[in-house]
Each structure stands twice: as structure tokens, then as C-alpha cells.
């Protein structure tokens, strides 16, 4: 698997780096679940067309941070936040920034494959439909493009009208990725997308992530440090609600600046 | 040192196995008692009423003469009643269930409301009859019409529909809501496109079982003052009517022995209607079998 990655040219050459724009700028973000201070003074800048991995032990706030980026965290009652997250320069906590609008720009893939109990076609067409697209021909095209984008078109093209639960778990997860692509997002958030999958399906999703970053910015939470090393350009290490270290993935894994990062990636805890 | 002595365990084994089989037969006996009672009841009714059951029985109005007595007015009256009860109770019940599960914030007031809806399901039906008499029959001056009785019955079964719909809505996995919200769907879009389709089997099953309770209830109808002997069919919801359980109650309380067989035939018709409704509930449940 490492050979696939190393054969690819590194994208972060210094000349290109300066061109890349920031998708998300997080400034002094704090988040509380009731009295539990879950995120503490987070400062992170996430660039476009990169894969940013968030690693850390259970309960360190990495999923919470991811869910804050599309404000899904607010579905939990009694959540409070302070600070700001700029998405393309605009604070997502602004009162006139509708969550629905934000979420049409930011797709999300969840830990457990969660297709709707509908046909594969209707799963993919769900997003476009709720945003008002009714034309059957356009929907057909979106469905095909999204399924191709998620590298699952060839496997399901003859069974689009079957229930999405009739395919394997790995295929379900790629259908969920296709469903997220169908709203033509700018950013894709992935919350441990391979934790419920077998190794082969995991490999397919990882390869897919590499493909997708050409067109999308991807932020992926993962429990699996090898996965972060394999697929990400940058890595953020979270611990107890704080960002301990954020850097190029190569640097984090070969030459971490903080002792705690080193302990974590060398498997001494977590 | 070991805490469990192998020999002592073996010694105790026999007693445990005996207790095991005793309980098995105890529970079997409990099931049999209920089953036997049901069979005896059915046998008595069928053997008594079978002779009177005929097409004429279904197409005749009630009569002073047992051989001419028919159930037409009651059967059609019960169908009219369902025509009012079904839409009223399902719309109100599912609506409140959606509000309580999806929109209402979790606080003391909503917890109190939730708790009391369950309690309402246990209130005797005669109390609902008195409520209907006060509000619908008198205050709103609907008289003893189909509408007044229908609204009263709707109130009676509303708590059951609310509770079963709440359970159906709650059993829709969180992941499906997350997926929908994550794509920028509004709450209403999520409810109408994801939550309700997934919850509809549970909602319909609960609703139909509640409706079959309404079709068998007598007490509220008596309190409202629904007449028993009617020689016409209601033409609209403002007309008066009679219902199956009322008719059966009347026949079974008459002194002539012949009317007992008429009552038994009426019970068979009522049970056929109930069986029909319950099998619809079963079919719906099997057809929409959830796949997540």
C-alpha cells in the first residue's frame, strides 16, 4: 500500500504551497458539552485540495471538532461554542449563516455506513432532490457521476433500483461517499470512515480518498495512525481537547516536535 | 485456591434441572389457560350464532322479531364511525408524536406531557364518554351524531396512537437523521422523506390496533346517548347512528331467548371486522419489513 502513495508526486512542493487557499480557518475555538470542556483553544488552518488527518486517542475531541466544521455537533443538546471557524472567509457561527447552506458545501461521511433504506439510485439522488432538482435526466447524470466518483459505478450500475442494504458493507460506505459527492460539495468530512470495514474495503476507500483530493478538500478523523500516514498530507494530533501538534504528515510521523505526539504515534498510549 | 467446588456443583445440578422443567410447564399452563378460555368463548358464540348468520342478517334493519332482526344499521354505522375516527385520530396522533419526538425540547414540561399521555391511555373509556357528552354533544351541540361519537372515540384512542407512533419514530436510527441533516436537508425534509417512511409500518400497525379498539368500545357510545334501534342509514356525519357493540349489547340484554342467538351472530360479525382490521396491520408490518 505504501508503494501506491510514494509513487505519487508530493503535492506540497514549496511553489505550489503558496498557491493553495485556506478552506477552513479555526481561531480560538472552544466547545462545551454542558460543563465538559471538550475543545480548548483550537487554532487550525486547513488548505484546499489536501487530505488533513485528525488523530488522537478516544475522547480527545477529534470527532467533535470534525462535527463542528459542519455544525452537526449542534444536534447534541446543550452544546456551547466560542471562537470562530471561517469557512472560505466567512464565520460559520454567524447568525445569518444557515446550517443548511453550510452543509450543502460540506459533505459528510460517517463512521458506520448509513445508507437510507431506499434504492441505491434514490440514495444518491436524495441530496440533489432536497435542493430542488427534479429533472430526471439531470438526476440520472448526477447519480452516474457521483457513483463513478466514488469508484463504485461498475459494481452497482445494473442494480441501481435495488435496496442499498443489499450490497456489502464496504460498498455501502462507498455509496455513502457517492451520496456526499452528489451535492457537489467543496469539502468532505470523514469520521472514521473505515472503522467498520474489512481490510480490502478499507484499501478501496483509502485509494478513493487519494483520487478525491484532486477535486475536494478532505478532512478525515481516524483511529488508525498507519492510515493517517498513508493517505494524508497534513496531520493534526489532538489530546484532551487540544491540538498538540499540526504539521506535514511526514514530519509528524518521522520527526514530531512534541514528546506526547511521539509517544502516541509510537504506540506508547492511546 | 478454588472457590467453586466441582463436587458441590454436581450435587446441586439435579435440583437446578428440576426447577428448570417445573418453570417450563408452569408457563405452558399459563398459556393454555388463556387459550382454552378463548376456544370455549369462540365455540359458544359460533355454535349459537351460526344458525342466525345469513345474508339477510347483514341486509336487514333491527326488528322486534328476532327472526327478522338484522345488523345493517349497526354495521354501516360502525363504518361511518371509522370514517370519522381514523383520519381524526391518526392526523392528531401522528402530528403530536412528531412534535414530541422531533421538535419539542427535552425539559421538565415535555417529560411531564410524555408521561401523562401514557397515563391517559389507561383512563377508563366511560370517562372519555362523559368528556364527549360535555364537549361535543352539549357544548358544541353536535347531538348524538356520527361526528360527536367519532370525536369522542378519537380522544379515547389518541393516547395509544401517540405512544405507538412515538415509539416507531424513536426506533428510526439516528444515523439516518445524521445523513440527511449532513446533506443540508431541513428538519421537515428529513421528517417527510426519511423518518416517516421508516416509521410508517410501526405507526400504521399501532393505529389500526387502536382503531379496532374504537370499533369494539361500547361505554362512550352509551354515555353519549347513541340510539339502538334505527330504521335508516346515516346520510352524513351529522346524522345519528348506531354501532355494532351497541346493537349487540341491546340484543343480549333482551329477555327473549331467541335474541341471544341474534346477539351471537352480531358478535361474529364484529369479530370478523376486528380480524380483518388486525390482519391488515399484520400485512402492513410484514410488507414494510425494515431492512436496517
UniProtKB/TrEMBL annotation, chain A:
Compartments annotated for it: namely: Cell inner membrane
Q: How does it sit in the membrane?
A: Peripheral membrane protein
Transmembrane segment boundaries:
none
Name one molecular function that GO assigns to this entry: ATP hydrolysis activity
Keywords of this protein's UniProt record, alphabetized? ATP-binding, Cell membrane, Membrane, Nucleotide-binding, Phosphate transport, Translocase, Transport
Name its GO BP terms in alphabetical order. phosphate ion transmembrane transport
Kindly indicate whether the keyword Metal-binding belongs to this entry: no
The ABC transporter domain sits at 24-265
Task: Just give the chief location class.
Answer: membrane
Gene Ontology terms: cellular component: plasma membrane
PROSITE patterns, alphabetized: ABC_TRANSPORTER_1, ABC_TRANSPORTER_2
PANTHER family reported in the protein's UniProt record: ABC TRANSPORTER I FAMILY MEMBER 17
UniProt function note: Part of the ABC transporter complex PstSACB involved in phosphate import. Responsible for energy coupling to the transport system.
**Protein name as catalogued:** Phosphate ABC transporter, ATPase subunit
Organism listed in the record: Planococcus donghaensis MPA1U2
UniProtKB/TrEMBL annotation, chain B:
**One of the record's GO molecular function terms:** phosphate transmembrane transporter activity
Task: Give me any GO biological process, just one.
Answer: phosphate ion transmembrane transport
Q: Membrane-spanning regions, if any?
A: 21-46, 79-100, 120-141, 190-215, 221-241, 262-284
Ordered alphabetically, the record's keywords are: Cell membrane, Membrane, Transmembrane, Transmembrane helix, Transport
The UniProt record lists the ABC transmembrane type-1 domain at: 75-280
UniProt keyword Cell membrane present = yes
Q: Name one Pfam family in it.
A: BPD_transp_1
Subcellular location per the Swiss-Prot or TrEMBL entry: Cell membrane
**Record's GO cellular component terms:** plasma membrane
Q: SUPFAM superfamilies from the xrefs?
A: MetI-like
Q: How does it sit in the membrane?
A: Multi-pass membrane protein
* Highest taxon of the lineage: Bacteria
Task: Write out the similarity annotation.
Answer: Belongs to the binding-protein-dependent transport system permease family. CysTW subfamily.
Q: What is this protein called?
A: Phosphate transport system permease protein PstA
Amino acid at each position: 500500500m505504501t508503494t501506491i502513495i510514494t509513487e505519487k508526486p508530493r503535492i506540497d512542493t514549496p511553489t505550489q504551497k503558496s498557491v493553495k487557499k485556506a478552506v477552513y480557518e479555526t481561531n480560538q475555538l472552544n466547545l462545551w458539552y454542558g460543563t465538559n470542556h471538550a475543545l480548548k483553544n483550537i487554532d487550525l488552518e486547513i488548505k484546499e485540495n489536501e487530505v488533513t488527518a485528525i488523530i488522537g486517542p478516544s475522547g480527545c475531541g477529534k470527532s467533535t471538532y470534525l462535527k463542528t466544521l459542519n455544525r452537526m455537533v449542534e444536534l447534541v443538546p446543550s452544546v456551547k461554542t466560542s471562537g470562530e471557524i471561517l469557512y472560505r472567509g466567512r464565520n460559520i457561527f454567524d447568525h445569518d449563516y444557515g446550517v443548511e447552506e453550510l452543509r450543502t458545501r460540506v459533505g459528510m461521511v460517517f463512521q458506520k455506513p448509513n445508507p437510507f433504506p431506499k434504492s441505491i439510485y434514490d440514495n444518491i439522488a436524495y441530496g440533489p432532490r432536497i435542493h430542488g432538482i427534479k429533472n430526471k435526466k439531470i438526476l440520472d447524470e448526477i447519480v452516474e457521476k457521483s457513483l463513478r466518483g466514488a469508484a463504485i459505478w461498475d459494481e452497482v450500475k445494473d442494480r441501481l433500483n435495488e435496496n442499498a442494504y443489499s450490497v456489502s458493507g464496504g460498498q455501502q460506505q462507498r455509496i455513502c461517499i457517492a451520496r456526499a459527492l452528489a451535492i457537489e460539495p467543496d469539502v468532505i468530512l470523514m469520521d472514521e470512515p473505515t472503522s467498520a470495514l474489512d481490510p480490502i474495503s478499507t484499501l478501496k476507500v483509502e485509494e478513493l480518498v487519494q483520487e478525491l483530493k484532486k477535486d475536494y478538500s478532505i478532512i478525515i478523523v481516524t483511529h488508525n495512525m498507519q492510515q493517517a500516514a498513508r493517505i494524508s498530507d497534513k496531520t493534526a494530533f489532538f489530546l484532551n481537547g487540544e491540538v498538540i501538534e499540526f504539521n506535514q504528515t511526514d514530519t509528524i510521523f518521522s520527526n514530531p516536535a512534541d514528546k506526547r505526539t511521539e509517544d502516541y504515534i509510537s504506540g506508547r498510549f492511546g | 485456591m478454588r472457590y467453586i467446588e466441582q463436587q458441590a456443583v454436581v450435587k446441586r445440578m439435579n435440583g437446578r434441572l428440576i426447577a428448570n422443567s417445573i418453570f417450563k410447564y408452569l408457563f405452558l399452563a399459563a398459556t393454555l389457560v388463556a387459550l382454552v378460555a378463548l376456544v370455549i368463548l369462540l365455540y359458544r358464540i359460533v355454535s349459537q350464532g351460526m344458525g342466525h348468520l345469513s345474508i339477510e342478517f347483514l341486509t336487514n334493519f333491527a326488528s322486534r322479531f328476532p327472526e327478522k332482526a338484522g345488523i345493517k344499521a349497526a354495521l354501516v354505522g360502525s363504518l361511518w364511525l371509522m370514517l370519522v375516527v381514523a383520519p381524526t385520530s391518526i392526523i392528531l396522533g401522528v402530528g403530536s408524536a412528531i412534535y414530541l419526538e422531533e421538535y419539542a425540547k427535552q425539559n421538565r414540561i415535555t417529560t411531564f406531557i410524555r408521561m401523562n399521555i401514557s397515563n391517559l391511555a389507561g383512563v377508563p373509556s366511560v370517562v372519555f364518554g362523559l368528556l364527549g357528552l360535555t364537549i361535543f354533544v352539549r357544548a358544541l351541540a353536535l347531538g348524538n351524531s356520527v361526528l360527536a361519537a367519532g370525536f369522542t372515540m378519537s380522544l379515547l384512542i389518541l393516547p395509544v396512537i401517540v405512544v405507538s407512533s412515538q415509539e416507531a419514530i424513536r426506533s428510526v436510527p439516528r444515523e439516518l437523521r445524521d445523513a440527511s441533516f449532513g446533506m443540508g436537508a431541513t428538519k421537515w425534509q428529513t421528517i417527510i422523506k426519511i423518518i416517516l417512511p421508516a416509521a410508517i409500518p410501526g405507526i400504521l400497525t399501532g393505529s389500526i390496533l387502536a382503531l379496532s379498539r374504537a370499533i369494539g368500545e361500547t361505554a362512550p357510545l352509551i354515555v353519549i346517548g347513541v340510539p339502538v334501534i334505527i330504521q335508516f342509514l346515516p346520510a352524513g356525519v351529522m346524522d345519528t347512528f348506531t354501532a355494532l357493540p351497541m346493537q349487540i349489547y341491546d340484543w343480549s340484554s333482551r329477555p327473549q331467548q331467541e335474541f341471544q342467538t341474534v346477539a351471537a351472530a352480531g358478535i361474529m360479525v364484529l369479530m370478523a371486522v376486528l380480524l380483518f382490521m388486525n390482519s391488515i396491520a399484520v400485512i402492513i408490518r410484514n410488507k414494510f419489513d425494515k431492512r436496517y
